[in-house]
Amino acid sequence: MQDLLKMKDNIVQLKLGHTAISDKALSEIAKLPVLMKLHLEHTAITNEGLKHIKNHKKLSYINLYKTKVSDEGLSYLQHIPTLEQIYVYQTGVTPAGIDKVRQSLSKSHLDTGNYQLPFLATDTTRYQ
To answer: Which top-rank group of organisms is this from (predicted)?
Structure first.
């Protein structure tokens, strides 16, 4: 982490998905002033970790797919007005939590992964 902080003014995107990144490490990541994209998918990040980045000034993208984040953690993100894309599928986030954040970040795209696949007459398998 110390090596990252040496380059803090140059890091725009951080891909930490599928790593052992901890909530505590997010307190250091919050010190990256120009960070715009943060990939945390398939990690053990929790609500506690998101507290550290709630005041980030530049973050526009965060992927929380398959993390341990819930509505509480998502609520910290509503303090980041620059967020444009938030991915929360397969987390503990509920529709109520999503609605609350959508009110604060109305211009953000919140992806829950709950896609409805159309059934076509030529399909032999029906998705459920």
So the answer is: Bacteria
Distance between the two ends of the chain, CA-based, in angstroms? 43
Query: What six digits make up the tokens of 45?
Result: 């990040």
| CB-CB neighbours of 3 under 10 Å | 6
- In the chain, the domains with their CATH numbers are 2-111 (3.80.10.10)
Could you tell me the two tokens for 73? 């953690």
| CB neighbour burial string for 100-128, b if at least 16 within 10 angstroms, e if fewer | ebeeebeebebeeeeeeeeeeeeeeeeee
This prediction's pTM: 0.87
β-strand partners of 85: 61, 109
Lowest mean pLDDT among 31-45, 48-62, 86-100, 114-128: 114-128
Looking at the predicted structure, is the pLDDT value of residue 120 above 80? no
